[in-house]
Amino acid sequence: MSTDAFVPADEIRSMFSTAMSDMYRAEVPQYGTLMExxxxxxxGKLETDAKLRDRLEHNDELDRIDLERHGxxxxxxxxxxxxxxxxxxxxxxxxxxxxxxxxxGVPVHSTAFRxxxxxxxxxxxxxxxxxxxxLELIEDAALRTEAEQIxxxxxxxxxxxxxxxxxxxxxxxxxxxxAEQFVAEALETFRWHSDATVSLETYQKLHDAHRLIAxxxxxxxxxxxxxxxxxxxxxxxxxxxxxxxxxxxxxxxGPPARNCPILLRQTSFKALxxxxxxxxxxxxxxxxxxxxxxxxxxxxxxxLTAEGRKLYDTLLAATRHAVQxxxxxxxxxxxxxxxxxxxxxxxxxxxxLRVEKLAFFRYSVTExxxxxxxxxxIANSVNELxxxxxxxxxxxxxxxxxxxxxxxxxxxxxxxxEQKNYAEQSNQDVFxxxxxxxxxxxxxxxxxxxxxxxxxxxxxxxxxxxVA
Length: 468
Ligand code: OOG
Ligand code: NI
Hints:
Layout: H1 9-27, H2 29-48, H3 50-58, E1 69-75, H4 78-90, E2 94-100, E3 108-114, H5 118-123, E4 127-133, H6 141-152, H7 159-171, H8 176-190, E5 195-199, H9 200-209, H10 211-217, E6 226-229, H11 234-240, E7 264-269, E8 273-279, E9 286-291, E10 295-300, H12 306-322, H13 332-342, H14 350-355, E11 361-365, H15 367-372, H16 382-387, E12 391-395, H17 403-413, H18 428-435, H19 442-460
Parallel strand pairs: 1-4, 5-8
Antiparallel strand pairs: 1-6, 2-3, 3-4, 7-10, 8-9, 11-12
Helix pairs in contact: 1-2, 1-8, 4-7, 4-18, 7-8, 9-10, 12-13
Bound molecules: 2-oxoadipic acid and nickel (II) ion.
């Protein structure tokens, strides 16, 4: 490759996610322990589950398993979200989905910056769950104004990061030296700063209003608050974490364990208590503590259609209505039993999920299909082609997040396992205005992926007429 060529956005994303992982491992030692545990369990699972291994291999997911991770940040003001979109765009990460977390009493709304097309996802699926604080949800007007004033003073991007974003937009990419500098400069925004921008007194006032508000408002930047590896067996990791000195939250969020995993299951472990220097007091400031950062793992399953998602939401809501986890999480077992019972109503084999159009699949032509199709063999439906073994259908993995689960992760990280349900206050239009762009609709992306795989497969089989 010529040294003058732009570095592909996918490669910049990989450079960045590796740099973030190295930084987080150095800052949060338990993250390294978790990564080791996850790698061991993934390895064991791949050795014993040949079907899973075959499916991952067929979908080109095997190589990305160890690369797989997501992170999360929380922003304080509109212009930060706007520039964050521009920064992630340099790495081929675009806003997908809108999540309203006020439903769980968390005063933020969010999106996920992630690669969109199939090729980019295969190269590196790194995503960042990005929340914007909703100061309008702070009831105390004086405190709201104070928080706004503090945030108005800060600039979370380095001047060189902003310059390189501008150059990437203007020229359509970054050269090697620029890309390396960009990654180093971008990293500065996500770093932990132990110097607060406020006094301990102000911190405490904001903390009393909501811990999350203190976390966003009192620091120089949006420290990355977790990085999450993907595991192939979340129950095994949850079970083994205590053996490595890590204590997980009470329950795994999302659907129960199943033969055919759907959507996303997540669990996390509590934040670290970190030393902070607050403004004032002695020349070195007043020393206090803050808990911000934690660890999380996730297991991803098949993406659901709107209908499948409706069924998921209904069953989850019924479970949460029947059993609410208490603060200490001592009734976690009751919740898990209830969840498993309710989800018995959700079909648990890929064939039914596909035929009933509850989930999305990627179609491809089998060897039998390549050899077996001839004029007399014309099939009338996709189902028939699959039944005859001419087409193969593999699950399309869910690449996004779940608002109720995300709220549970927030809650647990904010110090409690208690589940709360609040009235919804979504405001996607305001969010998109701050972002300076529309967020993509995740369901439309999965539908497109399924349709294009089917169109390609039918073309390969020489079927021109539309089959149902
Ligand atoms: C984000 C929590 C949500 C997830 O994986 O659902 C999240 C945060 O605590 O900032 O990361
Ligand atoms: Ni997360």
